[in-house]
Amino acid sequence: MRILGIESSCDETAAAVVADGREILSSVVASQIDVHRKYGGVVPELASREHLRQIVPVVREALAQARMQLAEVDGIGVTHGPGLVGALLVGIAYAKALAQALGKPLVPVNHLEGHVHAVFLEAHQAGRTPKLPAVCLIVSGGHTVLYEVTPEGHGAGFRYRKISQTRDDAAGEAYDKVAKLLGLGYPGGPMVDRLAAEANGAPAPVKFGPTKTRGNALDFSFSGLKTAVLYHVREHCEYGAEILAREAALARGERKFEQLLPLCSPQTLALVREFQNAVVRDLVERTMVAAQELSAESVLVSGGVAANSQLRATFEERGKSAGLEVFFPSRALSTDNAAMIAAAAYFRFRAGCLADASLDADPSLKLA
Ligand code: KG4
Ligand code: ZN
Q1: pTM score > 0.90 for this model?
Q2: Is 4 helix (H, G, I), strand (E, B) or coil?
Q3: Average pLDDT by consecutive 10-residue portion of the chain (368 residues)?
Q4: Which residue, by CA, sits nearest to atom 16 of ligand 1?
Q5: Alpha carbon nearest to ligand 1 atom 3, residue
Q6: How far apart (Å, rounded) are the C-alpha atoms in residues 148 and 291?
Q7: In ligand 1, which atom is closest to the CA atom of 139?
Q8: How many whole angstroms from its chain centre is CA 41?
């Protein structure tokens, strides 16, 4: 069964064809980063307009790469939430029109369930299957949430229970905000990731302790950490000149790692590493505690921040010493894509979850 997946919940217009929920026949992602960069974040109105421009060529390209005609598609899976309402509506309207015109089933997909399936898609390519129950951390620019994943009968795939979530910023949002205040460009995650690796032995100019959350101790919180970085930078005037120099470089379009690295002092590199240490420590610590409390068989990590090299290395290490297998998607499947939506749609379809022409966007759709 070949499903065409369509994703337009945020700032990526994506389409993919996946066979039987496991075999990626094509995956095309049109990123809007260049459109939103000068605003330092996603502008919803611009996102919707870009999706409108991109959706037809992106779907066409996904079909071409899979060497298929539209009529050969067996079903259409589309993200109907959570996300930006105007952005979601573009994908939904297009998917509905295709499904009606072709007389094919339309399957609504929760974007977060897509991220879970990204891990299984990747594992499948390597001939592995994560054992359940699992603890799944979804960590991106919009979400930081832990779920317990257990098997569900009737071919639907999985059942979810929310364990905890962020009380304020998502981890990716903290990366983006810290990068912005340090003059490191947008999005901040990939740049901070690479710069942190360059800190070598430089001593940390400030120490960020573990974040404690009252109530559910497994909840996350990143806005205090972001504010701590801001105060530290404000209190130390030596950062000022290099931030201005980097902002000037960014304004000239010099935003590559090789161009910004020489404009970063060892103190800045050490600050960036200390920030990343704190984020990674909190993410890994809480996930591993949850996994132990629930006697999970494996740990799944997905979403844009799952591309982070230190997060991956730390999870691998901790998983090994705890005797738990840790699974990540490849970097391409970590960030938003439609292959994960098509995969999730396959299992939803098998469970009989179909939508009709009344399908609407649900910007705050929950997974559990
Ligand atoms: O999943 P995604 O593509 O979109 C959302 O649903 O948000 O995630 C994007 C987020 C951004 O905040 C970006 O800075 C972060 O993921 N990100 C990273 C890395 N690559 C992307 N954060 C840390 N390290 C990375 N290597
Ligand atoms: Zn996402």
Answers
A1: yes
A2: strand
A3: 98 97 97 90 94 98 98 98 98 98 98 97 94 97 97 81 98 97 96 97 95 94 98 98 98 97 98 98 98 97 97 98 96 96 96 95 97
A4: 304
A5: 335
A6: 9
A7: 1
A8: 15
